Amino acid sequence: MSVLYACNEGWWAHYWCDALLEYKAEKWTTNKVAAQKFGLNWIAEKDATGLSADPNIVHHGHGSGYTMLNLAYLMGASRIVLLGYDCKYAPDYDGRNSKVGSSPRHYFGEYPSALQHWPSFSLKNGVHVEMVELYRSVAKQGAVEIVNCTPDSAIDCFPRCDIEAL
């Protein structure tokens, strides 16, 4: 099963095109406006640690990757492989002043300017410590096997593996 998830209406509006419409994947969001506007599957979200076991709610963790992890679990995944989950920003990132810093904030690079957002959170040596703690809450829960295949990831609570070895 293929699933495409994005939380906000802006992402769907920016990327919506015939190719995305025809893409053979279940399309999900936690945004009711986006769900109605683009005919997407919708699920409610809640700000909480760990993974939700309620099939009607995902824990969002203020990150689409974290939300997708919960969605995969609710869809019955027996093993989840993390790729692109490094939880690192440049040590000189400054969200309050809209400054990316000396390296991209995401494994896949920066968002287009229309989708930029500037979260304010706790960084320690370039590590998004709040997100790492959320992932630790998932590991402690032990609800599903999770393998981290992200090179140089700050997430240290799941077994690691090279993606080529899977």
Report on the architecture of this protein.
There is one protein chain. This protein has one domain. 26% of the residues lie in helices and 16% in strands. The protein has 166 residues and is an alpha/beta fold. Strands 1-2-3 form a 3-stranded parallel β-sheet. The protein has a two-stranded parallel sheet with strand order 4-5. It is built from 5 helices and 9 strands. Helix 1 packs parallel to helix 3.
Query: What percent strand?
Result: 15-25%
DSSP, total strands: 9
Q: Which descriptor suits the 3D outline?
A: globular
The number of distinct structural domains comes to 1
Q: What Rg, in angstroms, do the CA atoms define?
A: 16 Å
The main sheet comes to: 3 strands, parallel
Query: Segments where pLDDT lies below 50 for 5+ residues?
Result: none
Mean pLDDT: 91
Structural class: alpha/beta
With strands numbered from the N-terminus, the spatial order across the biggest sheet is: 1-2-3
Tell me the distance between the termini: 18 Å
Order of helices and strands: EHHEHEEEHEEEHE
Number of helices: 5
Helix residue percentage: 25-40%
